[in-house]
Design brief:
By secondary structure, this protein is α/β, with parallel strands linked by helices. It has two domains: 214 residues, Spore Coat Polysaccharide Biosynthesis Protein SpsA, Chain A (Alpha-Beta Complex); 92 residues, Rossmann fold (3-Layer(aba) Sandwich). The protein contains eleven helices and 16 strands. Helix 7 runs parallel beside helix 9 and helix 9 packs across helix 10.
């Protein structure tokens, strides 16, 4: 649990871990140079160990905690937790049981309930989307859409964390980077069916404060790892909006050429984007070029998926959704 000035949220988060029905746990709190007194005000507990981040920042704090967790002789599993969230009492028990019943699953998340004073429709739709992904095949096919595992729900055997080699700092979300690397290593993700974490949103949340969590940073990560996964040097992009242009530009940086853009709007068909033709999606047929679906409009992704399926396209083999 990395902590920097978590204030009153910290006690709630720590209490939720100490009250787990699976009681054989050790909570490693990594103090990332906090200036408040929240950590000092915690009631001493033999199951809590406070570490000081020797460097600075979230990636360093996570790696410092992970190194200590892996070094624990009696530690078999390692779970993530954030200092502003609340774990349900059976979270760890349910995740451990899920792992025992599904030994082929490498990384286990949970469904979440988002809460906070500033939640809009976007967050509610994201909650619905992320909770709808529980099976490894679903998560794999959607991993380039968004981060499919809420970071504070992650749970895995120590050997998996060791194999992943820790967190990297590429200037984009460190958790999404980890999941994409796990995906490239053919690791499998899954979740129990229960909601097991209350995921807090607030104005001081790290993901609202740092540029690494901005939309464009996610796309930097997506395309970086897509180009490592795919040998394709030529692609087609379904979409002509800002998201499609962002995907195009990132692909170009990795020497992947966009042959054309695809749209179904009569206003767009026949025009050019980035000096490439915009062609009609109606009657689309499979070609040797891989297809990336980059339409961010709500509901569009599923409609395009249905259409491509009707045209004989296979998701993962012929195309992927990246928005």
């Amino acid at each position: 649990m990395p902590v920097r000035n978590a204030g009153d949220y910290l006690k709630q988060a720590v209490t939720s871990i100490l009250l787990q029905t699976h009681t054989k746990i050790k909570l490693l709190i990594v103090d990332d140079h906090s200036t408040d007194a929240a950590i000092e005000q915690l009631t001493p507990n033999p199951r809590i160990k406070v570490l000081k981040n020797p460097k600075n920042g979230i990636v360093s704090a996570l790696n410092h905690g992970l190194e200590h967790a892996i070094a624990e002789v009696d530690c078999e599993y390692i779970a993530r937790m954030d200092a502003d969230d609340i774990a349900h009492p059976q979270r760890l028990e349910k995740q451990l049981a899920y792992q025992k019943n599904n030994p082929d699953i490498d990384i286990i998340g949970t469904k979440v309930k988002m809460f906070g004073n500033s939640l809009g429709d976007g967050y509610r739709h994201y909650e619905e989307w992320i909770n709808g992904l529980t099976k490894p095949e679903e998560i794999s096919l959607n991993i380039y859409v968004e981060s499919p595992i809420p970071h504070p729900t992650a749970f895995a055997h120590k050997k998996i964390w060791r194999k992943l080699g820790g967190y990297l700092d590429h200037g984009w979300p460190e958790d999404y980077d980890l999941w994409l690397r796990a995906h490239l290593q053919k690791m499998r993700f899954g979740k129990p069916q229960e909601v097991l974490l209350d995921w807090r949103d607030h104005k001081s949340r790290l993901s609202r404060q740092e540029n690494r969590y901005a939309k464009k940073s996610f796309y930097h990560a997506k395309i970086y790892y897509f180009t490592k996964q795919s040998i394709a040097k030529q692609v087609r992009i379904w979409g002509t909006g800002p998201t499609a242009m962002l995907v195009h530009d990132q692909l170009a940086k990795h020497d992947v050429t966009t042959i054309n853009f695809i749209d179904i709007s009569e206003k767009m068909i026949g025009r050019k984007k980035r000096n490439k033709n915009v062609v009609s999606g109606w009657g689309l047929i499979k070609t040797t070029e891989f297809l990336l679906v980059a339409v961010a409009a709500r509901g569009a992704r599923d409609e395009i998926r249905d259409y491509l399926k009707s045209q004989g396209f296979s998701e993962g083999q012929d195309y992927l959704c990246v928005a």
